[in-house]
Design brief:
Homodimer. It is found in: Cytoplasm. Its cofactor is Mg(2+); Mn(2+). The structure is a single chain. This protein has an 8-stranded mixed sheet, sandwiched between helices. Strands 11-10-9-12-14-13 form a 6-stranded mixed sheet, sandwiched between helices. It has 2 domains: 155 residues, ATPase, nucleotide binding domain (Nucleotidyltransferase, domain 5), CATH 3.30.420.40; 184 residues, ATPase, nucleotide binding domain (Nucleotidyltransferase, domain 5, 2-Layer Sandwich). Helix content is 35%, strand content 22%. The chain is of the alpha/beta class and 407 residues long. The chain binds adenosine-5'-diphosphate, acetylphosphate and magnesium ion.
Length: 407
């Protein structure tokens, strides 16, 4: 059977996930197939070091390599596709399509788009709205243009799913002309929220158009999405991926008066405020320990007061936002947990569901401990189902790319 090789680059705020899928030329599999090759680069764990994990041919290898420059590390990682013990293809020419998760499409883009020099310029212009993501996207695009010059590169936008949210959910209560200039609520993590909605319908064995879902994407970045009949009707992130719930090192929503105070009375400038809100806040800022939920959970167990407070604020804000999404939906058939925290942090799920029990969200604490696979962790009588779904951004991007094959 003839097949097509699709490479996906998913650059996050602190890491880059890449994978290569080999898909049949004529039909898409119904369930996510295992990628032929996967690589995960962690930029931030140790200063000056990139931690690279490569998985292919039933082997996994972790290496620490000097972080001379991010493109240098990306080139090294991509070369393992065609040489060495992880080699899975003969040469780069076999890869005909590559997909990128592009966090922000701004006003101009939402549909998947072939990346041209103009599109790269536009992604560059949007750096101020996604400063933690867009520089990494552009580096990835450039490295692929050098190594795979023949390959079509497709931008898949994380904002797309929210593009048709009701106007009331898109407009900020500021003077309306700003909306027309693009200061509006775009929403993010749409690639995975949409995938999770489709997966939830499969798991619940109900048609997607009949369902009201709240998807909680809890990773380093985190957002909630209210999904009615398969469409996003509200979400917690807005103009940038900084709005909404508390995150690993991002504040989420705070009183804008704090920014004015910092600017006027504390002498902080825009770059300093950007750094404070994106890199020094969230779990990291409150705990003064770490932005990594694993460390917060273990320090909390050991009685660390900062970790306990960070966890409590995280849950408090999450519960508030579930309430907000619930109000936008007017009901809820299932609450979905996805992303690194959503899939793995059992105390987060248990504590949040405990706070929401009065709404008929009743978690089975034994099922909550089950690891791996997509499953329902609600008690049999819970009127709202509680689903844990593995985030599949890369698979969703690969499917979009597959549809871009040239006839
Ligand atoms: N076993 C675990 N228990 C608790 N938290 C976890 C676990 N594994 C991963 N996480 C958390 O998931 C977060 C990263 O989520 P992920 O979705 O991989 O991030 P990204 O947004 O970079 O894609 C980190 O805060 C990490 O601590
Ligand atoms: C949009 C966003 O916040 O992405 P990530 O969670 O990968 O940082
Ligand atoms: Mg992510």
């Amino acid at each position: 059977m003839k097949s097509v090789y699709i490479l996906v680059l998913n650059a996050g705020s602190s890491s880059q996930k890449s994978c290569l899928y080999q898909l049949p030329l004529l039909s898409l599999p119904e369930h996510p197939p295992a990628p032929l090759w996967q690589a995960h680069i962690d930029w931030g764990k140790t200063a000056g070091i990139a931690v690279v994990k490569i998985k292919a041919k039933n082997q996994i290898q972790t290496q620490e390599i000097p972080l001379i420059s991010r493109p240098e590390v990306m080139r090294y990682v991509l070369h393992t596709l065609v040489s060495g013990e992880f080699q899975v293809i003969e040469n780069f020419n076999q890869v005909t399509i590559a997909g990128h998760r592009i966090v922000h499409g701004g006003m101009k883009y939402h549909l998947p788009t072939v990346i041209t020099p103009q599109v790269q310029e536009d992604i560059r212009d949007l750096i101020p709205l996604a400063p933690a993501h867009h520089p990494a996207h552009l580096e990835g695009i450039k490295v692929l243009s050098e190594l795979l010059p023949h390959c079509r590169q497709i931008a898949v936008f994380d904002t797309a799913f929210h593009h048709d949210m009701p106007l009331a959910a898109q407009v900020y209560p500021i003077p309306y002309p700003w909306y027309e200039k693009g200061i509006r609520r775009y929403g993010f993590h749409g690639i995975n929220h949409e995938y999770c909605a489709q997966r939830a319908a499969q798991l619940l064995q109900q048609p997607l158009d009949s369902l009201k879902l709240i998807s909680c994407h809890l990773g380093n970045g985190a957002s909630l999405c209210a999904i009615a009949g398969g469409k996003s009707v509200d979400t917690t992130m807005g103009f940038t991926p900084l709005e909404g719930v508390m995150m690993g090192s991002r504040s989420g929503s705070i009183d804008p008066g704090i920014l004015l105070h910092w600017l006027r009375n504390e002498g902080l400038n825009g770059d300093q405020i950007n750094h404070l809100l994106n890199q020094e806040s969230g779990l990291k800022g409150v705990s003064q320990l770490s932005g990594d939920m694993r460390q917060i959970l273990s320090a909390r167990e050991q009685g660390h007061p900062g970790a306990k407070l960070a966890f409590d604020v995280y849950i408090h804000r999450l519960a508030q936002s579930v309430g907000a999404m619930l109000a936008s939906l007017g009901g809820c058939d299932a609450l979905i947990f996805t992303g690194g925290v959503g899939e793995n942090a059992t105390p987060v799920r248990a504590e949040l569901c405990k706070n929401l029990r009065f709404l008929g969200i009743d978690c089975d604490l034994e099922k909550n401990q089950i690891r791996g696979g997509d499953h329902d962790i609600a008690t049999p009588n819970s009127p709202v189902r509680i689903l844990v779904i593995t985030a599949e951004e890369d698979w969703a991007i690969a499917q979009t790319c597959w549809r871009f094959q040239e006839p």
